[in-house]
Amino acid sequence: MEFAASDAKSQQSDGNAGSGEAPEPDGGAPRFAAPGADVPLPPEAEATLTDGSPSPGASSPSVNGTGPTRAAEDEAASAGSQAAGAASASATALSPVEAAFAAPGGTSWTRVAPVLAWYRRLLLLAVLLPGAVLGGAAIWAWSGWGWTIVWLALCVLGIALGWAAAEPARRSWGYAEGRTDFYLTYGVVVRQLVVVPYGRMQVVDVTSNLLEQALGIATLQVRTAATTAVTRIPGIPLADAVELRDRLTARSETFSTGL
């Protein structure tokens, strides 16, 4: 009997060696299990499932709140701090001139319509072109071609300079409605900042000539009680000029000082 059992074991080991498969250790789990069969887990996997920690290969949840959500919050906070730093840097980067003519706190300048630049260019052409032609003819009749060419060159230079300066002049205009005062700024070479208290306003009207009407803009005028000066804001769209007039009129009645 002992010889038969040893022969059977030797045959089994010879068969495994011939097939190229390593013999399975005693007590180990089978390498290939049938579908639905219970396969024993290694001690590491059982300890992992028992402790409740994730198994190898599974996505690990966030620890102490430092997961994908915390990373997104940190990134948003960093972006917010960078934006705040850029805003403060831009505010501190203002030159003394820009700071002196800046809009009052809590407001910003409302700029006039871009078509104001074309309005002024058309006015420039309407004045200088007839002047160049009529003046050139008169100078030619009086002194010949020499001074006529000089006159025409000066007229062309004036048109070119006025054409180029129309847009910077348009961008310089701005107004802001403060809590108790109305602010106006304008000027390129000489900058001005006008502050008009609402209680000092007496008359607020809107005017628009034929060219302004064709371009859809108007000029708002504010007359005060303290001085004879007239505050003018050109290049406001017609609808905005009417709304601004009504607001200023209502506030002048509210803040009226009886002057």
How would you summarize this macromolecular structure in one to three sentences?
The chain has 259 residues and is of the alpha+beta class. The chain has helices spanning 2-19, 43-51, 68-92, 96-100, 115-143, 145-172, 210-215, 238-254, and strands at 110-111, 174-177, 181-186, 192-197, 201-207, 217-224, 230-237.
SSE order and pairing:
Elements lengths: L1 H18 L23 H9 L16 H25 L3 H5 L9 E2 L3 H29 L1 H28 L1 E4 L3 E6 L5 E6 L3 E7 L2 H6 L1 E8 L5 E8 H17 L5
Helix pairs in contact: 5-6
Characterization of this structure:
The protein is 53% helix and 16% strand. By secondary structure, it is α+β, with helices and mostly antiparallel strands. A 4-stranded antiparallel beta sheet has the order 1-2-3-4. Helix 5 (115-143) packs antiparallel against helix 6. It is extended and about 70 Å long. This is YdbS-like PH domain-containing protein. Residues 171-248 form the YdbS-like PH domain. Keywords: Membrane, Transmembrane, Transmembrane helix. Residues 1-83 are annotated as: Disordered.
List keywords for this structure.
extended; 7 strands; 3-stranded antiparallel beta sheet; alpha+beta; 8 helices; 4-stranded antiparallel beta sheet; 259 residues
Question: Which stretches are poorly predicted, pLDDT < 50 over at least 5 residues?
Answer: 1-39, 44-67, 87-91
Distance between the termini: 133 Å
Structural class: alpha+beta
Beta strand %: 15-25%
Largest β sheet strand count, sense and barrel closure = 4 strands, antiparallel
